[in-house]
Amino acid sequence: MLFGQGEGPEWSRVFAVHDAASGLRAMIVIHSTARGPALGGIRRMRYASEDEALLDARRLAEAMSLKCALAELPAGGAKAVILDHEGLDHDAAYAALGRAVEELGGRYVCGPDVGTSAAALDLVRQHTRWVNPAGNDAGASTAAGVLAGLRGVCRVAFGDASLGGRRYVIQGLGSVGGGLAAALVEAGGEVAGWDPDAAARAQAQALGVEILEPGDWPLEREPCDVFMPCALGQTLDRETCEAASWRAVCGSANNQLVDAEAGAILHRRGIAWAPDFVVNAGAVIEGAETLLGEAEGCRERAAQAIAAIEGRCASILEASRSQDAPPAEVAMARARALLREG
């Protein structure tokens, strides 16, 4: 499977990284450099096989290319995955991966992702310059982008961009989901959610978030105005989308839809889905502006570009309605056109 066609998105380059001393087995997938260096985080997870890890990396790398294109960034998409396992020396593994990233000479610029902490990324920085700057806050910038996208969703789905007076269910209350919860409570929203981490739950509950205990009733079935998946992807399958009692979906998780039919079901049911690769672009926008752009004014440019997600999301949802096409189709068509233009 490693170099076969298989299922899933295409790629431009695949690099296998192995370091015997640390036990590192990793893959770097570069989807596209047509618009510039390929940006993408480092994900560390336990995978059932190398094929599963590769497929995950390919999907995520393609999503990064689409995300960068729609945000009009001079960058393409990539993703690195570390196959976590017993005996892996995490510190040495991240150092080895940093050396591998440096050897690519700037074709790939890495950043944080699931399983890669700020401390781990600091280890990478010791060995490569091609990494998200330490002064950036990926969680905060991602949350800012999702909030901007949510305002666009509210404009189309509810007729106004205000965030108060609506019920939100957040799946995942970590750095992004927790930040969203705080902002929505402050805006006057009714917020509920769940996270497997006890500290994250306690922090959210202290803000006034209703904690939904797991059980026979899946979180995805909880009635709300807006469901916000902010953990791992692949949560919106056909059965869930058929049964859901939401009016809209807007969250930070990558690759939320299990397949295109799940998105088509949401569209047929009149549930507005904000394409994940549109609304979760805050961190990559911040990274591109601070690393690839002119230093002077980079923070202001990043803030303006993140705020522009609101209009982009609303435009895609409006086109979805007028064309009677799922939002994912509209957004992907726009992104692919931009990728072809280079």
TrEMBL record:
GO terms for molecular function: nucleotide binding; oxidoreductase activity, acting on the CH-NH2 group of donors, NAD or NADP as acceptor. The active site is at K79. Gene3D superfamilies: Leucine Dehydrogenase, chain A, domain 1, NAD(P)-binding Rossmann-like Domain. It holds the Pfam family ELFV_dehydrog. Keywords: NAD, Nucleotide-binding, Oxidoreductase. InterPro entries: Aminoacid_DH-like_N_sf (IPR046346), Glu/Leu/Phe/Val/Trp_DH (IPR006095), Glu/Leu/Phe/Val/Trp_DH_C (IPR006096), Glu/Leu/Phe/Val/Trp_DH_dimer (IPR006097), Glu/Phe/Leu/Val/Trp_DH_bac/arc (IPR016211), NAD(P)-bd_dom_sf (IPR036291). NAD(+) binds at G172, L173, G174, S175, V176, G177. The keyword Acyltransferase does not apply. Residues 136-342 form the Glutamate/phenylalanine/leucine/valine/L-tryptophan dehydrogenase C-terminal domain. It comes from the Bacteria. GO terms for biological process: amino acid metabolic process. Belongs to the Glu/Leu/Phe/Val dehydrogenases family. This is Leucine dehydrogenase. It comes from Plesiocystis pacifica SIR-1.
